[in-house]
Design a protein that fits this description.
A hairpin with a 3-residue loop joins strand 4 and strand 5. By secondary structure, this protein is mostly beta strands. Helices cover 3% and strands 43% of the residues. It has a four-stranded antiparallel β-sheet with strand order 3-4-5-6, with no helix packed on it.
Length: 273
């Protein structure tokens, strides 16, 4: 059952409710996308259309009931012209249960997290989706169909927990955050990290040389901690359980597009830029 009020009022008429869902269950969240009302329940998701009847402004769409609910309140968000939600089966679906945009590793993280929420935001004219868990936040790029982990410096998670456009609310202090242009992350050094690996069919892979092609920018015009940028690599001999110390390579010339490490090891590694 759900209720509604007239525009710009908070008074609900005694007959302004609907309870004839095709598959009634506990209602946890709802979104209004275009002219469609999306109702997320414990075990089902229903789509209702708007009508011109002031006494009954919503009608269920026949055949538009998904046999998948939502994991918890707050785990749904608009994305582009559709919607996305975290289901009660720990998958992230875009528009329909058949369009799963999560992968097995991420679904394991969702399963293990007590809190799950979604919100969208804008960066450089691109709409992105944030999946916030207990200790980490994953960002989905709809254009590239890829996930990236965001994290704030010296914090276990990304500080933003909600957004309006490109302005964020902080989960730590309640202040308003926005994008900076001075390469500073909440007063601390800004880092970009990425993970690379070599495909294997079985066992491990022997690596003799690693080359990274990068754009170091106009380093002579930077100062302070950015005057002498460094790219660092570390390696693991046990599948990422333990790691070596960081191995640095200086990036001190604008023309330095190739950075190379030479070693002989069986390893997987992240690179810290």
């Amino acid at each position: 059952m759900f209720y509604w009020s007239d525009p710009l009022t908070d008074t609900i008429d005694g007959l302004s409710f609907a309870s004839a869902e095709s598959s009634p269950d506990g209602l946890k969240d709802m979104l209004y996308v275009g002219s469609t009302l999306v109702l997320f329940g414990d075990d089902t998701t229903e789509l209702w259309q708007t009508t011109t009847n002031p006494d009954l402004p919503f009608q269920p769409l026949v055949g538009r009931t998904f046999e998948l609910g939502i994991k918890q309140t707050g785990a749904a968000a608009k994305l582009t012209s559709s919607f996305v939600w975290v289901t009660n089966r720990n998958t992230v679906c875009f528009g329909s249960p058949e369009n799963i945009i999560s992968y097995a590793g991420l679904e394991e993280k969702i399963y293990a997290s007590e809190t799950v929420s979604l919100f969208n935001f804008w960066l450089d004219g691109l709409e992105l989706l944030a999946l916030r868990l207990d200790t980490e936040t994953w960002i989905y790029n709809f254009r590239e169909q890829s996930w990236t982990k965001f994290q704030s410096n010296q914090d276990t998670n990304w500080l933003p927990c909600c957004a309006v456009g490109s302005v964020f609310g902080s989960s730590a202090s309640g202040v308003v955050l926005d994008w900076a242009t001075n390469y500073i992350d909440n007063g601390e050094e800004l880092e970009r990290r990425f993970i690379a690996w070599a495909p294997t069919t079985a066992g491990s892979t022997k690596l003799n040389n690693v080359i990274v092609r990068a754009n170091p920018g106009n380093t002579p015009f930077l100062d302070g901690q950015y005057a002498d940028p460094v790219i660092e690599m570390r390696m693991s001999r046990d599948g990422g359980r333990t790691w070596s110390a960081w191995i640095p390579v200086r990036v001190y010339e604008p023309a330095s597009a190739l950075i190379s490490w030479s070693f002989c090891s069986r390893a997987s590694w992240p690179v810290n830029e």
